[in-house]
Amino acid sequence: MSSSAVQPPITPLPEVTRLSPTVIRILGGNPGKFTLQGTNTYLVGTGPQRLLVDSGAGERSWISALQRTLTEEKAHISAAIITHWHHDHTGGIRHLLDWNSKIKVYKNQPTYLPGYHGSPVSLEQIGTPLLPIEDGQEFSVEGATLKAVHTPGHTVDHMVLHLAEEDALFTGDNVLGHGTAVYEDLGVYLNSLEQMRGLFKGKGYPGHGPVVEDGPGKIGEYIRHRQQREDQVIATLKRDSEDGWTPMELVKVIYQGVPETLHIPAAGGVTQILYKLRKEGKVTTADGGDRWRLTDRSAL
């Protein structure tokens, strides 16, 4: 899922695109402010059996496009691998299994499916228990071997998938084709980005947006961007303020020139930075409230 605080213009993408001899992208049919052109799902492999990465949001157009593509490829899905629990990646599981109940569906922490943006997902709705994914587990079909790596941050269950044949990485929502990503825990997320950067040298196949041609380079940009934001928060906190700063007050300084309609999601990101800095002992709050200050202004 994309952060709306920094959002470049969105270029339309075709519903179905062959990205390489091994990878076909099928859009989820759910374009929007946070989903960009829609959730990317991927058919992976070259033979009669294919792997599916993610299942979109449950739009009928997606399952129709998937069926057409498999017919054209003279192929079927042996396993579906879900990168994380968000509804726009799990919502199509039920349609997939209604169409072909023999498909095995894998997800890290398979029972972790909380409600999301008013669209709860339950095992009852999906219709079958999901199978677990272990860190380092491999999935293979003709022409493709995917290795799953646990990379929490965007969500606690988030997995990326390394495609050995291309030295490419399916990055889920940790890295996107446009803009920046949201996360549940900034410190954990940054650790995962560092881990991901060392996994591959080729393309990134993101959960939303176009292919990232230089995957490790894009991850480096993400890390630098987050460090710049953290530096801006610390620099602003160094300014004299007897009462400390609220996250929104920090946003109004750091995000000058950004439309005010985007200040609320930006405040969420600033709050995550403050939580990270508090864990590191660099900031504190007054009486457990929402006003923040440096623990030692002179030490930073």
From TrEMBL:
Record-level Gene Ontology MF annotations: hydrolase activity; metal ion binding
Cofactor dependency: Zn(2+)
Gene3D superfamilies per UniProt: Ribonuclease Z/Hydroxyacylglutathione hydrolase-like, Winged helix-like DNA-binding domain superfamily/Winged helix DNA-binding domain
Every Metallo-beta-lactamase domain range: 38-208
The keyword Nucleotide-binding is assigned to this record: no
Keyword field: Hydrolase, Metal-binding, Zinc
One GO biological process term: secondary metabolite biosynthetic process
Pfam annotation, one family: WHD_BLACT
Leader peptide range in chain numbering: none
Family that this chain belongs to: Belongs to the metallo-beta-lactamase superfamily. Glyoxalase II family.
Name used for this protein in its record: Metallo-beta-lactamase domain-containing protein
